Amino acid sequence: MTRIIVISDTHDQKLPDISIPLLKSADMIVHAGDFTSVACYEYLKNINEMVAVCGNSDCAELRRHLPERIVFDVEDVTIGVVHDGQLSLTGTCGLWYLAKELEVDVLIVGHLHTPFIEESDVLIMCPGSPTVPRLADRTAIELVIKGKSVRGQVIPLGAGACLIG
Prior knowledge:
By secondary structure, this protein is α/β, with parallel strands linked by helices. It has helices at residues 19-25, 38-47, 60-65, 93-102, and strands at residues 2-7, 28-31, 50-52, 69-74, 77-82, 106-109, 115-119, 123-127, 139-146, 149-156.
């Protein structure tokens, strides 16, 4: 069994205290972009093994260092990560097509700052943000993989701020 904590859109902000033990106890962290600074990236990388992509707000150094997309395997599951992957406020159809293009079982996206998990033949998820959520609480996603079985759940990390932009 592999337990992954998925986060995104940290934007160089201090993580909620409740999130640190969660990140340390996982088998790995997946970050779907928008660290904003190298310091934030390095801080998270030193907490645990991490797979990450760059986001639209990341500095030039991170954009040179991190890919826009990444596909990797955990046990018998193929996972894709992008920051802003064909998002629509009206549905996830574009994300489903992106998942098919990447040939993944799980697609993780960032950018929205609002969590969701959608299950079909592909598991599509956005962890929200542990630091600057939009009209939502601070969140992460716990992803548990056993062989080919995948389960995701939104983990609340405390009350959020009513940020719109």
